[in-house]
Structure formats: C-alpha cells, structure tokens
C-alpha cells in the first residue's frame, strides 16, 4: 500500500481535518497537537477525537502523525523550559491516547551551547519520566538539519538517545526521517541513497524508522538551512523525490508532505506522487 498525506490544519476540528485529508486523496496525515509556536493547548474535544479515530479506521488510513510544537525544547539549559517541554509532551500524549496506534513526532531540540552530551541527557530524562511501556502511541524523534545547536543532525546522535532511554520503552520509540533535513545535514539522498540507508541501518536500524517527511529542499546538500521546497521544485527534483519514495527500504512508510502548498496544491502533489509510485 502507498501511504501518502500532508500536514493539515486542525483549526476546524479533528474530524474536519480527516475529511480534508481524504478530499485530497491522502490516506495518512500530520497535525500539530497544539499551537506550534505557543504552549497553550485547547481543552480536548473528546467526541471530536473519537469521531476522528473512527473516521481513520473506516477509511483505512495508515498511521498518522501528531507533531509536537516547535517550542517544545526538552534539552534547554533553562529548567523552566524543560519542565514546560515535559508538560506539553505529557498533555500531547494524553490527546494521542484517544487516537491509539499512531505516532507522535518531536524535534530533539536545541542544546543552546551546553553541548550534545549535556543536552541529550535531558531529552532521555523527559522520555523516561513521561513515557510508559503500555502507552498506545509510538514516539518518534525527527532527523534534523543541524541549524544552530540542533540535536539530531546525525544518526549517531539519535542512536545515542534511543540507546540511553529505558529499554522497556524501546518498542514505543522510533525515528521519523525528513528528506530536506537529512540532505541539509549532509546525508546524500541522491547518488548516495543506498549508502546513506546502509549507514542508517547499521547505526539506528531500519526497523526503527516509522515515518518519512517527504520534502524537496531549497538548498543543496550540507547547507543546514531547513528550507522546504515543493515536490520537484528543489534540489532533489521530481526524479530524486521519486527515487527516495520508491526505494525498497522506504516505500512501505507513511510519507508526509511538509511542502509550502495549500490544501489544493497538496492534492496535486499527492496525485503526482501516486502516478510515480511503483516506478523506479
Ligand atoms: Fe518537524
Ligand atoms: Fe519534518
Ligand atoms: Zn523542516
């Protein structure tokens, strides 16, 4: 099955969001569990979440992805901001409990100068204190472009965090790849795609990869800029994007577009990629 969707606004409610996704031919989606640049969450509309969950099952959606707000920084030097990160993480997982069996993705954060060793321990601390082995949601760490002091630019950094987390949580922890971020971080997804995936497999393990943010990039490899481009409009081009999504080690994953398009534009991108799925 080809699983493809986009980031979609939840502003008009969750069921509405599911219908929007279906209307553009998507069978997965990603949404912000709260205002991406703030910290406040709206009170949960439980009937809406339940209707949304039923909708996803009825229409055979692949796993969907809740995305943490950008303000969630579990490795801040500031204990107040770390506490806030844990609170948002806990609340978002409580929301995800109403749509069990899906993913919650977060950016490992920015260490802001204290260094990887110190910052990454705080990330592990948050995972170990908030997560439980029986939670219905799998938490994903996203691969980052290495802008500023971002943690998660290399497979080694992500592997370290996964390895340090409580082993009992391991089945509920995974990775979300992002093509724009990986390339910006320096990984070759063009000529060196096979080699990059071998490195990923030996460092983290391909079975840990649960979702894929499929974005073109405005900048060439290694630029650390994190500027997404629409499908076919960037460094990879349509051919490069199609080679990535058709790779035998990736093609089973839910692909989420985070491209600068509106709902209609996303619909066109989905149609285009459906046309090219299966071709290598
Ligand atoms: Fe992200
Ligand atoms: Fe992303
Ligand atoms: Zn990005």
Shape: globular
State the helix count.
9
Query: What is the mean pLDDT?
Result: 97
Ligand kinds: fe (iii) ion, zinc ion
- Could you state the order of secondary-structure elements as H and E? EHEHEHEHEHEHHEEEHEH
Helical content (DSSP H or I, runs of 4+): 25-40%
Instruction: Write down the Rg.
Output: 18 Å
State which percent range the strand residues make up.
Answer: 5-15%
- Biggest sheet layout: 8 strands, parallel, barrel
Distance between the termini: 16 Å
Strand arrangement, largest sheet? 1-2-3-4-5-6-7-10
* Low confidence ranges: none
Task: Please describe what this structure looks like.
With 280 residues, the protein is of the alpha/beta class. Helices cover 38% and strands 15% of the residues. It contains nine helices and ten strands. It has helices at 14-23, 46-58, 79-96, 116-130, 155-164, 179-185, 193-203, 237-245, 263-276; strands at residues 3-7, 28-32, 65-67, 103-106, 138-142, 173-178, 209-213, 216-217, 228-229, 254-257. The strands form two sheets. An eight-stranded parallel barrel has the order 1-2-3-4-5-6-7-10. The protein has a two-stranded antiparallel ribbon with strand order 8-9. Helix 1 links the parallel strand 1 and strand 2. The longest helix is centred in the first third of the chain and has 18 residues, at 79-96. It is globular and about 50 Å long. Residues 180-181, 226, 228 line the site of zinc ion.
């Amino acid at each position: 099955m080809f699983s493809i969707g986009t980031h979609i606004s939840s502003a008009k409610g969750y069921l509405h969001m599911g219908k929007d996704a279906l209307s553009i031919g998507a069978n997965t989606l990603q949404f912000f569990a709260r205002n991406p640049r703030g910290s406040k969450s709206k009170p949960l509309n439980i009937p809406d979440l339940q209707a949304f969950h039923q909708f996803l099952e009825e229409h055979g959606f692949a796993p969907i992805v809740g995305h943490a707000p950008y303000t969630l920084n579990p490795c801040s030097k500031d204990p107040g901001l770390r506490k806030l990160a844990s609170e948002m993480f806990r609340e978002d997982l409580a929301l995800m409990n109403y749509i069990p069996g899906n993913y919650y993705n977060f950016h490992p954060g920015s260490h802001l100068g204290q260094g990887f060793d110190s910052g990454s321990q705080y990330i592990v601390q948050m995972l170990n204190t908030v997560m439980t082995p029986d939670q219905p949601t799998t938490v994903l760490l996203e691969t980052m472009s290495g802008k500023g002091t971002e943690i998660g630019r290399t497979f080694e950094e992500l592997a370290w965090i996964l390895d340090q987390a409580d082993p009992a949580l391991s089945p509920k922890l995974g990775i979300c790849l992002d093509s724009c971020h990986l390339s910006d971080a320096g990984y070759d997804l063009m000529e060196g795609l096979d080699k990059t995936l071998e490195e990923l497999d030996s460092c983290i393990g391909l079975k840990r990869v649960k979702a894929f943010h499929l974005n073109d990039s405005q900048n060439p490899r290694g630029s650390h800029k994190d500027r997404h481009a629409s499908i076919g409009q960037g460094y990879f081009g349509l051919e490069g994007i199609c080679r990535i999504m058709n790779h035998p080690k990736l093609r089973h994953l839910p692909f989420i577009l985070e491209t600068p398009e509106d709902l209609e534009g996303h619909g066109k991108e989905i149609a285009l990629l459906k046309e090219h799925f299966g071709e290598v």
